[in-house]
Design goal:
498 residues, alpha+beta, 6-stranded mixed sheet
Length: 498
């Protein structure tokens, strides 16, 4: 009778556990008939459980399974025994087995990253290699509720935002070499205790990684000390509660992400050399969305967020009220710069690659077409006699000047000390620096703005609309006209021949 009850209990554990995992997989659309799946198997309880579950449902779903085992070369003979154990298990289940071996300690040292990070990188590298080789479309990893709780606490202690506290994704799409691969985590719905009970009732052996019992790694300290203490001394359902909280935060993170995407498109402008938003525009958004927009800019500009912390986002928020020209140096060579009514983001390396305008000085010694550096523009110059009642063009790219009022020589250059522009008919002048300040031209753009100059007298500020010096304007007494036409080579057929 006792044996019968024990068998019945085991059967119930198996059915409930398997049903729970299958329901979770179907709810999150993890598998479809005909999927070809790479399974990461270390030999521990979690990955062995995953292997048996997927093997059991493989016929019903017509799944193609391949196991990848990665030897990190950190535990000597013990690691080799793990590899052989996984190989024999795959042989027993009739699943294709692939093994890789990496010196993770050496990789960690040469790349200046932790052994945990180096191990993760080589594992996914191996998974993807088999995916590409055998045209597999999914990778299954054995993350469970305990891993989710550990990740939550690990990110909390590191100061992560809501995204980092939302735990591990049940599925994640990766794009590699024109191929999309989906990572699935079927065991995120069960705890490690449930996994070990499932294996025990089936008499399924598994390996125990001795390094998991030490406190050599941050996650081990959280697992062996923080979570163990919390479960025993505070609440027996600590793992469940943390996992549930992470799922709630995931829903909030998704809402913020969707809202941020809409606001980002309204607020942020992408420029050739970076990104920019108007301070007045972003202040209309909730502070949560402001921070998310800034994080998105960091990700777009820097390509990653690993070293971006809350303090960096706060520095940008504080920049709103700082003086014009104030800058903040950020991770990955990024810079946030306060302009008059905006914050500009760029990478220092990109700015250094731009054309050096400082040395620009082009002598205009007569009619012709002159190439202007930087924006692929040309300046077409002509001189002709004035006639009565001539119509002066209003096109911002064409300017006429009284040729006989030129005192020194005409040249196109960048600014110099002593430059000025005449602002009225009575001879009133304004320093070029003051003009730039009045027009709220960003400081870093002032030295790159091209000018048509007669000595220190600025005749025309290129790219600034209709602003030319009052001195050179056409009048009834004008005899000869100097015509200048700004042409963009990319947009104008006339310039392409030059």
């Amino acid at each position: 009778m006792l044996n019968y009850l024990q068998a019945a209990v085991k059967g119930m554990v198996n059915i409930m556990m398997l049903g729970k995992i299958i329901d979770f997989m179907e709810l999150n659309q993890m598998v479809e008939k005909g999927d070809s799946i790479v399974i990461g198997v270390s030999g521990g309880a979690d990955s062995i459980c995953l292997l048996y579950v997927l093997s059991e449902i493989s016929k019903e779903y017509s799944l193609g399974l391949r196991v990848v085992h990665v030897n990190h070369q950190l535990r000597g003979e013990e690691a080799n025994e793990d590899q052989e154990f996984v190989r024999l298990t795959c042989e027993k289940l009739g699943v294709d087995f692939h093994s890789f071996s990496y010196d993770v300690k050496k990789i960690s040292q040469s790349n200046k990253i932790s052994e945990e990070e180096a191990g993760r990188k080589v594992r996914y590298q191996s998974f993807l290699e088999i995916c590409l080789k055998y045209k597999c479309n999914k990778i299954a990893t054995a993350h469970n509720k305990n891993d989710n709780a550990e990740t939550f606490l690990f990110n909390l202690f590191r100061g992560s935002g809501i995204k980092g506290l939302s735990g591990i994704d049940s599925s994640l799409k990766l794009k590699r070499i024109n191929k999309e691969v989906t990572i699935i985590r079927p065991l995120l719905c069960v705890t490690r205790r449930e996994i070990e009970a499932f294996l025990h009732t089936r008499d399924i052996p598994y390996r125990i990684d001795s390094t998991n019992l030490t406190d050599n790694y941050s996650r081990n300290k959280i697992r062996n000390n923080v979570l163990t203490y919390a479960t025993k001394e505070i609440n027996n359902n600590t793992i469940e509660h943390i996992s549930r909280a992470a799922n709630h935060l995931k829903e909030i993170a998704l809402f913020i992400e969707e809202t941020t995407e809409r606001s980002y498109k309204k607020v942020v402008s992408q420029r050739e050399d970076g990104f920019l938003f108007n301070i007045e525009d972003i202040l209309k958004e909730n502070i949560v969305i402001q921070k998310a927009i800034i994080r998105k800019i960091f990700e777009q500009l820097g390509g990653r967020l690993k070293d971006v912390e809350a303090v960096h986002i706060q520095q940008v928020l504080d920049l709103y009220d700082k003086p014009v020209g104030k800058r903040i140096d950020l991770p990955y060579g990024m810079v946030a710069l306060k302009e008059y009514e905006a914050i500009k983001f760029y990478c220092e390396s990109q700015i250094q690659k731009q054309v050096d305008y400082e040395a620009t000085c082009i002598k205009i010694d007569g009619p012709g077409v002159y190439y202007l550096p930087g924006d692929n523009n040309y300046l077409e110059v002509n001189i002709f006699s004035a006639v009565k009642n001539i119509t002066i063009p209003k096109n911002s790219c064409i300017k006429w000047f009284d040729y006989d009022k030129i005192e020194i020589a005409v040249e196109v250059r960048t600014r110099r000390t002593g430059d000025y522009i005449q602002i009225n008919n009575s001879g009133g002048r304004k320093k070029l620096k003051d003009y730039f300040i009045d027009r709220k031209i960003p400081r870093e753009k002032r030295s790159k703005t091209l000018l048509v100059a007669d000595g220190n007298h600025i005749m025309w500020i290129l790219g600034k609309g209709d602003r030319i010096s009052e001195k050179y304007k056409i009048s009834e007494s004008t005899v000869r006209i100097l015509s200048m036409r700004l042409i963009n080579a990319e947009d104008n057929e006339d310039a392409r021949k030059y």
